[in-house]
Specification:
Strand content: 25-35%
Helix content: 25-40%
Number of helices: 7
Bound molecules: zinc ion
Number of domains: 1
Oligomer: single chain
Order of helices and strands: EHEHHEEEEHEHEHEEH
Largest sheet: 4 strands, antiparallel
Shape: globular
Strand order of the largest sheet: 3-4-5-6
Length: 211
């Protein structure tokens, strides 16, 4: 959950927190990665890491973590970029590691859709971040789907999210339990997940693979 407005540690602009597009650099990754004074802990655009020429270094810094944390995976190549799709059977989630830094985490259900798509909770209504997003949406948003390209353009972020598609809208999310529901109003993004055909095939195989 974002209570504050996340800004990119490299370009200073808003980070939406979209799977495969954004990344949060953690302090231990700085220890494991290159000694580059320009990179600091915090959210950043994967594209900014790529433009700085350190995306591969950061991906390498978390490669070992992925392999030890989720030791069941299938690997492949997407246009020359190495990837490794790890599964977490307990959480029914995938953790996609890519050598170009476009890491993402998504539920099994996302890979079953055509095209693969994810839903991301961006901001809780009433938070400062939600106010910024609502202003860019140009509506109070209730029940209205605003295209993500429009939102990104209004935030002057088109160059950070080139080719983005999908939408943003309100959604009530239960953060409690089935017995004691606690509904919170979130601004939610729904957007395609860039998975090549080999990665999709791997996802189907991992879903069926015995635990
Ligand atoms: Zn940036």
């Amino acid at each position: 959950m974002h209570d504050s407005v996340g800004r990119c540690s490299l370009c200073g602009r808003l980070v939406l927190g979209l799977a495969g597009q954004d990344w949060c650099v953690l302090p231990w990754m700085l220890d494991a990665g290159a000694d580059d004074a320009e990179v600091r802990p915090g959210p950043c655009h994967a594209l900014c890491l790529q433009e700085l020429g350190v995306a591969g270094v950061w991906a390498a810094a978390v490669e070992g973590y992925h392999c030890s944390r989720w030791p069941d995976w299938i690997s492949g190549l997407d246009a020359g970029v190495r990837w490794r799709l790890h599964r977490s059977p307990q959480a029914r989630r995938f953790h996609l590691w890519r050598a170009d830094g476009r890491l993402s985490s998504f539920p099994y259900a996302a890979a079953r859709q055509h095209p693969a798509a994810v839903t991301t909770d961006l901001a809780e209504m009433g938070s400062r971040y939600a106010e910024v997003l609502l202003a860019a949406m140009g509506t109070d948003g209730a029940g209205i789907e605003v295209p993500l390209p429009s939102l990104v353009a209004a935030l002057a972020l088109t160059d950070r999210y080139p080719g983005i598609s999908g939408s943003i809208t309100h959604r009530l999310t239960n953060v409690g339990t089935a017995h004691r529901p606690e509904l919170i109003d979130f601004l939610v993004a729904r957007h395609p997940l860039a998975l090549d055909s080999g990665c999709r095939t791997a996802a189907y195989e991992l879903i069926r693979r015995p635990v």
